[in-house]
Amino acid sequence: MITFENDNQEKKSLKDEGDFEIEVGVAESGVPVGEIVEAADEAAKEDTSKKEEIREEIENVFSMDENVTLFHKGNLRNGTSLEYDGSVVLLGDVNPGAQIKARGNILVLGAIKGTVHAGCLGDRDAFVFALNMKPVQLRIGDIITRFPEEVLKGEIFPEYAYIEDGRIYVSEF
Amino acid sequence: MSEVIVITSGKGGVGKTTTTANIGCGLAMSGKKVALVDADIGLRNLDVVMGLENRIVYDLVDVVEGNCKLKQALIKDKRYSGLYLLPAAQTRDKDAVSPEQMQKLCENLKEEEFDYIIIDCPAGIEQGFKNAIAGADRALVVTTPEVSAVRDADRIIGLLEANELNNPSLILNRLRIDMVEKGEMMSIDDVTEILAVDIIGVVPDDEAIVIQTNKGEPAVTVETSKAGQAYRNITRRILGEDVPLMELKNEETFIDKLKKLFHR
Question: What residue ranges define each of the domains in chain B, with the CATH number in brackets?
């Protein structure tokens, strides 16, 4: 599931590189899912449709892939690609020519100067956060955007990108 | 009838990518339909030099592997309507494509009715070079007036001939006429004597190249640049016009004359 491609096309497990993985799935979370569903059932006793809705919502929360997150420490240099079937947190920079592709959200505690693709299987609810958002190209779900020249040369502050009405918006965090 | 031209050199850093971008732009300025193909998989630069990096969605490897259609991967230039770029993949390496696949790709590009298909070859003589020349009809060899670059160009010309790409044309890049006059640099004649191939152009060393490359706009578009003029001339020669090599000698200014007088 975790692949890290370098120039030689060798696929290494990121665990060998000193990275670690946190899984907050149904099994690992320690939260007894059944109890929560029961509590929700009580709250929505009268309305069966609402009950169904809440059940669905809770199940969604616990089965969403973005709850599985990869933490990676280090800069991604030109030509490297970090692909993950969940969300990615990067402590470092994404240099021009490097890319992150994640099924969930992407948080970069550093600068994005390369290409990032959040929700790469088409999830438009995914978001991208960076301390310095200057990507060559930013993709969320099936939408691609590129930044105007003056923004790329402009000031540095934390920003996040998300989709609204089928467009990618970037806001100060 | 479309022609596939590969731009190669053997040695790195002599100006293959710059030459590709400038000739491509020059041909598009003359109203031709041109496709630039970056064959330097893993170390792509042509998109940066052309200022089209942020428009890449699919690349050459995606086309070859059938992940997308050729038309989807071709990026339309922002300045000239007849100019297109097929970028290389960055997170892969040269082994991702084979010479046969490149040949097929060139055939497909020819079907798109391009007048010229220009391939930017990577440095070296390995897989990347073999891929780049596989589908080519004609080769342009770029060299600088340095012993090492000329030596590598000679090797490349030999390899091209072995692959039935006969009579490659030579581009002598980054010539400094003042140094040649002082006898500190190889002259045009020195180089052509060693390589014994037709010279299609001489490009003088010019600051404008660095400035324009960093801007992502090829120097051929700059009217006042000497290197730009040299590339415009090369373009016209590719189109079959008979253009004499341009005069590179600098006009002596009044101050230069004065300096000479006092140095005697």
Answer: 3-263 (3.40.50.300)
* Å between A169 CA and nearest CA of chain B: 17
In chain A, what residues touch B53 (CB-CB under 8 Å)?
96, 136
A158: its two tokens: 């934390």
Which helix or strand (DSSP H or E) is residue A72 part of? strand A68-73
Contact A160/B at CB under 8 A: no
Higher-confidence residue: A134 or A26? A134
Where along chain A do its domains lie? 33-63, 66-172
Nearest CA in chain A to B44: A97
The CATH fold of domain A66-172: Pectate Lyase C-like (2.160.20)
Burial of A71 (0-12, 13-18, 19+ CB in 10 A): middle
The per-residue pLDDT for range B76-125, each reduced to its tens digit, is 999 999 999 999 999 999 999 999 999 999 999 999 999 999 999 999 99
Q: Which residue has the tokens 């990067």?
A: A90
Q: Which residues of B touch A3 (CB under 8 A)?
A: none
